[in-house]
Design a protein that fits this description.
By secondary structure, the protein is α/β, with parallel strands linked by helices. The chain has 21 helices and 22 strands. One of its GO terms (molecular function) is cyclic-guanylate-specific phosphodiesterase activity.
Length: 555
């Protein structure tokens, strides 16, 4: 065999991709005319697996964090041949990556390389917190695990970092992360290995002697913070794993994987939970991978459908409409609640597709009910816009099309937008909301009272409905602060001539209290959970015959 033949065999495409994967680097290739972005290499390690091996520009934009959408657009923008590209992007399912490349032919294609920011920075420290970055943390942990003794690795995931980014802005949210890094460094004894191993993940490897690492970490980091005039109350979801050091110690990267698996298991129990790694979690991890595979195409196959929760006029008990909520009828596992699949849909960049599907399906169902029950009058259906969907190209056109195709009047289809989504860019939001209103959509501001909105903006935005977050409604009976917030929002709605809907109504007593305050509408388990289309029609028939929707005496 000649040297040249051997060389060609060594450097074949498979070997090249294996080398890229080992180096945590990927190649990208963008063809705007075909609307195709190809990614080869370490896609999973870089948090890009939902995009690999190829995707559309819409999927790419959806995976980028909302505050980095401008950089994503910059990467896709057509330039002249030879123009260089350098973009810093944070993706929903990964860390910070640098995309570098060049336009090879004007307007035809561009190509380049993707690598973690730290590879370009050549630093072992996280710039924001001063803690070790993921690579350096694993390297130091690998060395420490060679020592005999019991070692404990604790990984803490900061809950709702995305919400903080949206509400405070990236720069202020970074101040929160920096403060938590400082607290972590001060809390643990000298010799502990401390790192920030993900955008919202902190890690500690130590030899626990006289203290419980997970509790020490929680005590240190869950103290309130005041940032830019706002009180922040951090909560953590924690995973922990123990290992014997020495010759038979597990590989450090494997130990981190186990701790992160424990974090995922803890998150299933809600924010602020904790879990210790167990072998049973490995099966859960495989189950998650299977669920991800099943999700691809689930929307197109009609497996994800709207369920409908009644919205009731409090003064008369009459059914006013429904809120459409996504449910997955899995072919093998049956009905799956949203918390089991919505996070995966978001990670996979499918939220825009789901949002359009929900709007069209709910609009079609509403039109059918209006035709078969002409006496129901102004029955409405509300659909939630997912985070960032307000910026989706074609949203206004889709709304107008749904109304026209189904013969629905103005206001019959309501779109619910979260407060934090509006406050990311209030000026741009005002323009889009006005266009949606002109297209015929009703507009509701969801979860009002949980964010950081300015009342001056509220008076300028074309909302017709305020929705009070269920937490305040459920706790207003025993929490003076919640009662004041509910009363204030109802009064604000009256002053601004907006309808007010209270979520989380669990019984007749709560409904009566809200009615006395002047609240217009209520929804919650006191009336009904989210119902299948068939169950919702039965509920509609009963409410029509009885003249009022039934409400539980006690929750």
């Amino acid at each position: 065999m000649s040297f040249k033949v051997a060389e060609r065999r060594i450097w074949d495409a498979t070997t090249t991709l294996e080398a890229l994967g080992a180096a945590e680097v990927a190649l990208w290739h963008w063809e705007p005319e075909a609307d195709r972005l190809r990614i080869n290499g370490a896609a999973r390690a870089l948090g890009l697996s939902p995009l690999a091996p190829e995707c559309s520009s819409a999927a790419f934009r959806a995976l980028a964090l909302p505050q980095d959408r401008a950089q994503a657009e910059e990467l896709l923008r057509v330039r002249e041949a030879g123009a260089e590209i350098v973009v810093r992007l944070r993706m929903r399912s990964g860390g910070v990556c640098i995309w570098r490349g060049v336009w090879l032919e004007e307007g035809v294609r561009a190509a380049g390389v993707i690598a973690p920011e730290v590879k370009f920075a050549a630093s072992g420290k996280d710039e924001l917190t001063g803690l070790l970055d993921r690579r350096s943390f694993i390297a130091r942990a690998r060395e420490r695990l060679t020592h005999d003794g019991v070692h404990e690795l604790v990984v803490a995931d900061l809950d709702r970092l995305r919400r903080l980014n949206e509400a405070l802005g990236h720069e202020r949210a970074d101040l929160v992360l920096a403060a938590l890094g400082s607290r972590l460094a001060a809390a643990f004894p000298e010799g502990s290995i401390l790192g920030r191993i993900g955008e919202d993940e902190f890690a500690v490897l130590c030899e626990p002697k006289g203290y419980e690492p997970a509790e020490l970490l929680r005590t240190a980091l869950e103290q309130p913070l005041r940032i830019a005039g706002f009180d922040i109350h951090p909560t953590l979801t924690i995973g922990a794993v123990s290992a014997e050091g020495g010759e038979d110690a597990p590989e450090a990267a494997e130990l981190v994987r186990r701790a992160e698996l424990a974090v995922e298991a803890a998150s299933a129990n809600g924010r602020g939970s904790a879990a210790a790694y167990g072998r049973s979690m490995e099966t859960d991890g495989l189950s998650r991978l299977a669920l991800e595979a099943d999700l691809r195409g689930a929307i197109g196959r009609g497996e994800i459908i709207p369920y409908f929760q009644p919205v009731v006029r409090l003064s008369t008990g009459a059914l006013s409409g429904f809120e459409a909520l996504a449910r997955w009828i899995h072919p093998r596992r049956g009905l799956l609640p949203p918390d089991e699949f919505l996070p995966l849909i978001e990670e996979m960049g499918l939220m825009a597709e789901l949002g359009e599907h929900m709007m069209r399906s709910a609009g079609k169902q509403l039109a059918a009910w209006r035709r078969s029950h002409p006496a129901v009058g102004a029955l409405t259906v509300s659909v939630n816009l997912s985070t960032g969907e307000i910026d989706r190209p074609g949203l206004v056109h889709d709304v107008a099309q749904v109304l026209a195709e189904n013969g629905l009047p103005r206001g019959a289809l309501k779109l619910e937008v979260t407060e934090s989504d509006i406050m990311r860019d209030p000026e741009r939001a005002a323009v889009i909301l006005k266009a949606l209103r002109e297209a015929g959509a009703g507009l509701a501001l969801d979860d009002f009272g949980t964010g950081f909105s300015s009342l001056s903006y509220l008076t300028r935005l074309p909302f017709d409905t305020l929705k009070i977050d269920r937490y305040f409604v459920r706790t207003m009976g025993g929490n003076a602060g919640s009662a004041k917030i509910v009363r204030s929002v109802v009064k604000l709605g009256q002053d601004l001539d907006l309808e007010v809907v209270a979520e989380g109504v669990e019984n007749a007593e709560m409904a009566h209290a809200l009615q006395k305050l002047g609240c217009d509408y209520g929804q919650g388990f006191g009336y009904a959970p989210a119902l299948s289309p068939q169950e919702a029609e039965v509920y509609l028939n009963e409410a029509y015959v009885d003249g009022a929707a039934p409400v539980k005496a006690r929750g």
